[in-house]
Amino acid sequence: MAAESTESKGRKIVVAVDEGAESDQALSWCLKNMAAAGDTIVLLHAQPPRAVYSAMDGTGYLFSSDIIQTMEKYSKEVAEAVIQRAERTCAGLENVKVESRVEKGDPRDVICEAVESVGADVLVLGSHGYGLIKRTFLGSVSNHCAQNVKCPVLIVKNPKPLEQ
């Protein structure tokens, strides 16, 4: 029987990032407590799909192509800003590779598909901490991913501020 190498090949850790402080907290926690030499951190931003509008809005006005282009441009700028902020957070890591991906679609589906396509060893997500009512109406990305991906999922909660 051959001896196993003590050198690990490193893990692929997918960290879902968005505009919220919760994803910043999750990324920071991951870098401080999980990331090790040889790992690859995959920063994943799920760009929500553009709302589908009919040719006329409720007031009977047509949406111009300029408005649609402006909405697309804004969405792209938000995605770029999210990734740049996350990459700055990762700056200075030694022996850890950082990759970035922006995918369009429902965040629940995008995250699950990306985890599978990159062969992730673990998925790290922030939690908004919605209660039962909000979660029922808005859905929970972290809950959906925890139920549907085939790798371990780490959900990082923001600590609640102390009441004074």
What is the topology, as strand order, of the major beta sheet?
A: 3-2-1-4-5
Enter the CATH topology name.
Rossmann fold
Q: From the helix content, strand content and strand pairing, which structural class follows?
A: alpha/beta
> What letter string, H or E per element, gives the SSE order?
EHEHEHEHHE
What's the domain count?
Answer: 1
Helix content range: 40-55%
Count of alpha and pi helical runs? 5
CATH superfamily: HUPs
CATH class: Alpha Beta
How many beta-strand segments? 5
Low-confidence stretches: 1-7
Chain-averaged pLDDT: 83
Shape: globular
CATH architecture annotation? 3-Layer(aba) Sandwich
The biggest sheet amounts to: 5 strands, parallel
General description of the model:
It is a single chain. Helix content is 40%, strand content 20%. The protein is α/β, with parallel strands linked by helices and 164 residues long. Helix 1 links the parallel strand 1 and strand 2. The termini are far apart.
List the helices and strands and how they pair.
Elements: E1 12-16, H1 21-33, E2 40-47, H2 65-90, E3 97-104, H3 107-118, E4 122-127, H4 132-138, H5 141-148, E5 153-157
Parallel strand pairs: 1-2, 1-4, 2-3, 4-5
Helix pairs in contact: 3-5
Highlighted features:
5 strands, globular, Rossmann fold, alpha/beta, 5-stranded parallel sheet, 40% helix, 164 residues, disordered N terminus
Summed up:
With 164 residues, this protein is α/β, with parallel strands linked by helices. The protein contains 5 helices and 5 strands; from the N terminus they run E-H-E-H-E-H-E-H-H-E. It is 40% helix and 20% strand.
